[in-house]
Amino acid sequence: MYRYLWDGDVILHEWDYAETDRPNTVVTETGEVTLDRPEPVENLITWVYDSAGYVPTAKIVGNRHYSIISDYIGRPVQAYDDKGNVVWQADYDIYGNLRNIHGSRQFIPFRQLGQYEDEETGLYYNRFRYYDPRIGNYISQDPIRLAGGMSLYAYVHNTNRWIDLLGLSGMPKGGWNYGNMPKLEGYQLHHVIPKSMPEHPTIKAAGFDVNKPSNLIYLPIEDGIHSTRSIHNGWNKAHVNYNADIKQKLNDLVKFGNADRWGRQQYLDAIESLREETRLGLRKGEIKCY
User: 192 pLDDT band (50/70/90 cuts)?
Assistant: First the structure.
C-alpha cells in the first residue's frame, strides 16, 4: 500500500506498508465509519519546500534529515545527509530524464518542476496528466484542449521562438510593466498590490511601483486552465473584498510605521513581504479574487 498526504498542490508526507497490514473499515454501533486499528506509518517521509512554490528543499525520514539542492529551474540535482555527504546526485537530458545518477534513483522522486516520478511506469505525474520523459510529451491529451495550444500532447511551447539569435530583440524602453507585458490566452494579468492604491500612504512612503513585474501575476480566467492558481475574471464582489483586505493591511502597516518611525526601506520591506505572501496565496488558490 502506497499512501500520500497532500498539502494543497504538493506532497507533504508519503509512506507504504504491506497489504496484510492494511486496516479494515468498520462501522460502529452508532453508525460511525472508522478503522479497526491504526494505519502503519513507521517509514513516514516528510518533504519540505521553499516558501514560494514547488521546489523541494529537504527530506525527513525519522531522525534523518537530507538537504536537497536544485538547479535554476527548480529540478533537484543533489541531496546531502546531515553530515554533508552526497547521497544522491543526477543531471537531466533535454526531455527531463535523469542521467549520471549517483545513489538510488527514487531517493529523490521529484523531476522537472511539479513532476513526481512513478517508479513502476517511469512516467512523471504532473497533476492532471502523466509525462513521458523518453519522448518529451504527455501520454494523454490536454484537458483544456486547444486552449492550451495546437499540440494536445506537448509539454511546453516551442522555446526556439523565444531565442534572440542576433541579440537585437531588446526589452521595452523603460523595462517591462503592466502596460507592455505580453498577453497569455486564458489568463488575465493581476496586480498583487492593487493598481488603484498608488497614492496610499504606505505605498508612497515606500516608493513602491504597483506596475512593476514582480507585483503582477497571470491568473486563469476559469477552472481547468491551471491546477492551483486563483481565478481572475474582471471586477466582481470577490475582487472588491480582495482589494479591501489589501487596503486594510496597508492601513495597518502605516500605523506600525508611524508608531515606530519607519524609514523608506522599512516600509518597502514590509510591502514586499505582503506582496510575496499574497502572491503565494494566489498561486496556491488560497486567496480568492473571483
Answer: very high
Please say which residue of 88, 116, 144 terminates a domain: 116
- Closest to 81 in 3D by CA, of 51, 100, 107: 107
Which residues does 171 contact at the CB level (< 8 Å), separation at least 6? none
Question: What is the value of pTM for the model shown?
Answer: 0.60
Whether 152 maps to a domain, the answer reads no
Range name among 77-81, 147-151, 177-181 with the lowest pLDDT average:
147-151
> How many whole angstroms separate alpha carbon 232 and alpha carbon 220?
6
Average pLDDT of every residue of the chain: 90
pLDDT at residue 193 is higher than 90: yes
Average pLDDT over residues 161-188: 75
Structural domain boundaries, residue 11: 2-116
Q: Three-class SS string for 148-193?
A: HCCCCCECCCCHHHHCCCCCCCCCCCCCCCCCCCCCCCCEEEEECC
Domain count across the chain: 2
What span, in angstroms and rounded, lies between the C-alpha atoms of 170 and 189? 22
- Amino acid identity, position 289: C
Separation between Cα atoms, residue 262 and residue 274, nearest integer Å: 16
Dist. CA 192–CA 215, nearest whole Å: 5
Q: H helices within the chain, ranges in order? A: 201-206, 237-260, 264-284
